Amino acid sequence: MAKNDLKLLGGWFSPFALRVQIALNLKGVDYEVIEETLNPKSELLLKSNPVHKKIPVLLHQDKVICESAIIVEYIDEVWTHAPSILPQNAYDRANARFWVAYIDDKWLSSLRSILIAEDEETKKPHFEEAEEAAERLEEVLKKSSSEGKAFFGGDTIGFIDIGFGSFLSWTRAIEKISGRKLLDETKHPSLVQWAETFAVHPAVNALLPEIDNLIEYSKILKLKLAAAK
């Protein structure tokens, strides 16, 4: 498929756009990325996603697909020539969807709250929330790694890997900003090893944003999130 038949409205800073790129790379599909600055939002974005007005948006010929998890599932169902991203078993698929929803709820909210917190005292409950989420994900991953698998998805990157891995650079950036580990080698050894393996995967490596660039971007994001709050 030609790149002009498949376009992604995304942004280098967006973990959600990153999810879509990883999925497309895993499938070996050619696509074009249209970088959105969101300042202001482009007419194409507002036209393509008039409900939420957010990235990512996948433009597949005359079709428009929104919301990162939904887009990844769409990619998996349309391009079946490559290994599946979601499990084949119905129960395992439901389980994968549950954990990605959990990540979007607990991990994302923790990162955002830590970022905008004004002092250590207000950061404390959000670090605790992140700690609880990391512990739960460590247990989920251990079930796979106990069988000799490198990823949540088994031998290859799957839905949970993409869901959590899309936050990897932001996690490291916030660790650097706060001076405190969110993924700790002692407490979360499986997750730390998984993060290293995930980051160097050919479908991922070139896509992960530089941590220092995210730290600079976070200064702008912090003001936006604080204003929204």
UniProtKB/TrEMBL annotation:
It catalyses: RX + glutathione = an S-substituted glutathione + a halide anion + H(+). GO terms for biological process: glutathione metabolic process; toxin catabolic process. The keyword 4Fe-4S does not apply. One of its GO terms (cellular component) is cytoplasm. Keywords: Detoxification, Transferase. Residues 4-83 form the GST N-terminal domain. Transmembrane segments: none annotated. This is glutathione transferase.
